[in-house]
Amino acid sequence: MAEAHQAVGFQFTVRPDGVDLKLSQEVIKNIYLSGVTAWKKRAIQFKNGVLAGVYPASPSSWLIVVIAMMSSLYIRIDPSLGMIDAIKENLPHRSEIFCSHWSLQTCLTITLISIIGNTLYPTMSSLVKMFSGRRPLLYSFQASLPRLPVPNVDDTIQRYLESVHPLLDSEQYKQMEILSNDFKESKAAHLQRYLILKSWWATNYVSDWWEEYIYLRGRGPIMVNSNFYIMDLLYMTPTHRQAARAGNVVHAMLQYRRKLERGEHAPLRALGTVPMCSTQMERMFNTTRIPGIETGRKQLVHFRINQHSNHLVVYHKGRFFQVWLYTGGRHLLPSELETQFQRILNDTSEPQPGELKLAALTAGKRVPWARARIKYFSQGSNKVSLDSIESAAFFLTLDDEPQGYDPAITRSLDSYAKSLLHGKCYDRWFDKSFTLISYPNGKMGVNAEHSWADAPIVGHMWEYVLATDCFHLGYTEEGHCKGDVNKGLPYPTRLQWQIPKECQDVIGTSYLSAKQIADDVDFHGCLFSEFGKGLIKKCRTSPDAFIQLALQLAQFRDQGAFCLTYESSMTRMFRDGRTETVRSCTSEAVAFVRAMEDPSATRLAIFRKAADKHQNMYRLAMTGSGIDRHLFCLYIVSKYLGVDSPFLTKVLSEPWKLSTSQTPQQQLNLVDINKFPQYVGAGGGFGPVADDGYGVSYIIVGENLITFHISSKFSSPDTDSYRFGQHIWKAMVDIQALFKPENDKKTVEHSKHVHLENGKKHI
């Protein structure tokens, strides 16, 4: 999603000392019970680690091999073909028969498991179904996932040149060919060798550098520029009681976290069959981003879940509260969480000096925040309070202004999006893995930090939470959480701060910087309801290709020109895979857009050719043959080696004026949308990538709705998010109209066929 912003024009240099980037009793009882719970979790994690390690076999498979081998001993058959006799020669006389058989049995079991595990992925379509009879755990397939391959340099460069050809004039393209040929002949092979070497010892040759240089090394604000948001249900609000909704949602998140700790979630699979990497999910909870002045310190910290991290921190009207999530060795029930949150809402205390806008430090530039953290938050109550925030399961904001989609309010979706993305610039802790946002009218939402994972990972959790909230936990007739009210819980604890005037000045500066960014965000939410995935599939084309070509048409009509376009694709079919770029503005897409402006052109045939090209580009990106991650890593190697490459410098500095991403629906089994059409999510979005461009996120909801989240900057005279939304709407309708004669013809032929069949029946 928002990674395109960081992927443009970053620079770093290599120094001799490293890399620098320009980047009471009751209490004792509860502690005891928390410790017991923690050890239980460790035992479960160990067990699941063993089960995952031997998958697709099970520990009982070893016993089966033992029985088979011991039976062969009594009927005097040697299934080892002489291996047992060889083992006997090297063992003491008394134990030779016993140990030789057990050694062979163990080796045979391990060998079979290894062979099956390593052949599971290449023969995935048939073997996964065969060996998935035992319910696999979340990480069962991890060892079977292949490593991301390093593409051939010549192929990558050729695909790159093909991608920029429609965007350059003849002279510019000739110059780019010269640069690319010079790179191939002089430097490419040398740099490629280092990438191949890295691909041998690293599980993924891209992902660690991608996290480091695209996210963690950045020194600019992460609010808007990197963080993204996810919305609540679009039409439905289960309860309008703020504390109750927050209670259910937080409890559902705790259920999700427990299943995550135990590996009990079903493995993620593409097309329902091919396993995908799940490692990003490990840092979903109890994770925070730490600001750094220099780039040599660890900047993404995941806290182990224990008695010190089983809490969350709640922000409300400028105050920070710590709420424990466990009592008596169990999760707080939804009704208990509701009680705690209502206590916070009823609290009338004032913020401490400097507390109100403290979180603005996480919204502004990273270096001032890093220096303030070292100087003012490294000891005393400030350190204790900051540690509480950073080690919390997640951050919760009880907002004081209602938000959500309301068809009676003009552009209500736009206001909702801006609130989730940046809020007041000081009421979300942007460094946490995610901030859960609760509104007074019962609506919810999430603001997520981007470095630890990509949007589908957070989306997977959010789908589970919404379904659990609405269909499993539920509410009373009065809108409260179900269950008895426990008033004996200790009250939430206020975090204590001693913030001097100098630090308050830094907070004020960060706030003003962040507010300037937030005020410049122009957002528009477009609910396209003319048709959806159902009708597009009847046109025998990919919904994603259809939408991407509509975006190209909208872009041309809005700007009068084509531009470099970024579409995010996942590479999680490989170990530790994250994303790759699909360069959607192809020569075929350009030809289609020009045909749409020419009434005499054979538009439908040109559309199909462009759609097929897009699908092929997407497949290449998903299967490790993309363009941009390979060139990015070659650039990193060149900087480490001190090799100057005008070609790579040019490629890595190109702006993405149109950045796009689809929010996937991953767990369609959780909610039957046909039966409960009001329970649809609204997806999410991200901030504008280029100063003079657009960011577009979209989600295909069910069969008849597509939601677009469009962002740009007010400061650009050339962009307008609402106007672009209108162009998208018209482009979608215009493209669908190309299929009407074809669909009408099919309808007529179908009617004739039915008429003839009925006639035969009467005869």
From TrEMBL:
Domain Carnitine O-palmitoyltransferase N-terminal: 1-47
One example of a Gene Ontology biological process annotation: fatty acid beta-oxidation
Domain Choline/carnitine acyltransferase: 148-728
Keywords: Acyltransferase, Fatty acid metabolism, Lipid metabolism, Membrane, Mitochondrion, Mitochondrion outer membrane, Transferase, Transmembrane, Transmembrane helix, Transport
Pathway noted in the entry: Lipid metabolism; fatty acid beta-oxidation
GO CC list: mitochondrial outer membrane
Stored PROSITE patterns: ACYLTRANSF_C_1 (PS00439), ACYLTRANSF_C_2 (PS00440)
Top-rank taxon: Eukaryota
Task of the protein: Catalyzes the transfer of the acyl group of long-chain fatty acid-CoA conjugates onto carnitine, an essential step for the mitochondrial uptake of long-chain fatty acids and their subsequent beta-oxidation in the mitochondrion.
Protein name, UniProt field: Carnitine O-palmitoyltransferase 1, muscle isoform
